[in-house]
């Protein structure tokens, strides 16, 4: 049984073809990076997978059920972490249980003990248990993004979708956040899709890579297959020099280029 099936998905906005007949299947537990230049369709794909957007054609099946309305087991994390600055890390994380508790209960934090424990466990997963009572606005961008991840984890997802979760972060914080995402995925056995601009970060953390260009899937493969030629196919004429690191080197801001 495949965890996720994307079958012939096309999405148009007027004359714009944002996704053009995209298909792939992903087994449970894979950590997938979605690559592509701005406008290639990454966000549209993730929004279709989370049922925030309805495909014009084709369908998405998660756990053998068509994805027609948002489901709590499919959690989405955004670039703007959408957390509330005046609330503590803990309260922000706990608000992820809104699906179960309902809006009123969430506002007054009347969630049951199980949900409160889950919020603390989720903060622990992202390394913020000690900061649980800190106001989110007093945290760094990377920490705030980790609070956003914790909030998604409180939903008890089996699928995690993250749209450019590290785009606004400096390289060090970006890697921190990616490390925690990877840790959460391993610890909780999540199937994870992350759209990323930075090829070197994708390469370091991704297991499988789906490349989009003009809405079409132009690459789908595992780390060994993500060669310079594959990157060229995804990014076209854009100069990808320096976006690439050897799999065994640390992308510490001074990437080494892979030989052709
Ligand atoms: N709601 C919308 N209405 C009209 N056009 C849209 C809408 N959403 C996306 N598009 C168009 O669809 C195409 C794909 O957009 P999408 O946001 O999926 O790309 P992306 O790869 O996420 O880009 P970026 O890296 O800039 O976030 C673009 O041409 C975009 O302008
Ligand atoms: Mg986008």
The CATH level-2 architecture of the largest domain is identified as 3-Layer(aba) Sandwich
β-strand amount: 15-25%
* Share of helical residues: 25-40%
The class by helix and strand makeup works out as: alpha/beta
Order of strands side by side in the largest beta sheet?
A: 6-7-8-3-9-10
Total helical elements: 9
What is the straight-line distance between the termini? Answer: 37 Å
Poorly predicted runs? 245-260
CATH topology of the largest domain, which one?
Rossmann fold
Mean pLDDT: 88
What is the chain-wise order of helices and strands? EEEHEEEHHHHHEHEHEEH
How many whole angstroms does the radius of gyration measure?
Answer: 18 Å
- Biggest β-sheet description: 6 strands, mixed
Q: How many discrete structural domains? A: 2
What is the CATH class designation of the largest domain?
Answer: Alpha Beta
DSSP, total strands: 10
Which hetero compounds are present in the coordinates?
A: adenosine-5'-triphosphate, magnesium ion
Principal-axes geometry comes out as globular
Superfamily (CATH H level) name of the largest domain: P-loop containing nucleotide triphosphate hydrolases
Condensed summary:
This protein is an alpha/beta fold.
Verbal overview:
- The strands form two sheets. The chain has a six-stranded mixed sheet, sandwiched between helices. The chain has a four-stranded antiparallel sheet with strand order 2-1-4-5, with helices on one face.
- Strand 4 (57-62) and strand 5 form a beta hairpin.
- It has two domains: 1-73 and 159-260, P-loop containing nucleotide triphosphate hydrolases (Rossmann fold, 3-Layer(aba) Sandwich), CATH 3.40.50.300; 82-156, no CATH class.
- It has nine helices and ten strands.
- With 260 residues, it is of the alpha/beta class.
- The N and C termini lie far apart (37 Å).
- It has helices spanning 42-49, 89-94, 98-101, 103-107, 113-125, 141-154, 171-188, 199-205, 228-235; strands at 4-13, 16-26, 31-35, 57-62, 65-66, 74-77, 159-163, 191-195, 208-213, 216-222.
- Mean pLDDT is 88; it is low at 245-260.
- The structure holds adenosine-5'-triphosphate and magnesium ion.
- Residues 13, 16, 18, 36, 38-44 line the site of adenosine-5'-triphosphate.
């Amino acid at each position: 049984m495949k965890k996720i099936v994307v079958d012939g998905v096309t999405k148009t906005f007027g004359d714009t073809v944002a996704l053009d007949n995209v298909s792939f299947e992903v087994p449970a537990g894979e950590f997938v990076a979605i690559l592509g230049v701005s406008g290639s369709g990454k966000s549209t794909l993730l929004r279709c997978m989370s049922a925030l957007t309805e495909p014009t054609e084709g369908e998405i099946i998660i756990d053998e059920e068509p994805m027609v309305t948002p489901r709590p087991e499919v959690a989405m994390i955004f670039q703007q972490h959408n957390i509330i600055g005046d609330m503590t890390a803990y309260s922000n994380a706990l608000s992820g249980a809104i699906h179960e508790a309902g809006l009123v209960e969430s506002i007054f934090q009347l969630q049951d003990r199980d949900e409160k424990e889950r919020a603390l466990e989720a903060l622990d997963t992202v390394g913020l248990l000690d900061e649980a009572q800190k106001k989110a606005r007093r945290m760094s961008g990377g920490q705030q993004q980790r609070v956003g991840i914790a909030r998604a984890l409180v939903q008890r997802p089996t699928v995690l979708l993250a749209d450019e979760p590290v785009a606004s972060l400096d390289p060090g914080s970006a890697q921190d956040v990616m490390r925690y995402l990877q840790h959460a995925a391993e610890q909780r056995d999540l199937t994870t899709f992350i759209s990323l601009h930075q090829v070197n970060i994708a390469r370091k953390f991704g297991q499988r890579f789906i490349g989009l260009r003009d809405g079409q899937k132009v690459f789908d493969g595992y780390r060994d297959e993500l060669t310079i030629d594959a990157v060229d196919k995804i990014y076209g004429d854009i100069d990808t020099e320096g976006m690439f690191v050897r799999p065994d080197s640390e992308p510490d801001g001074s990437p080494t280029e892979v030989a052709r």
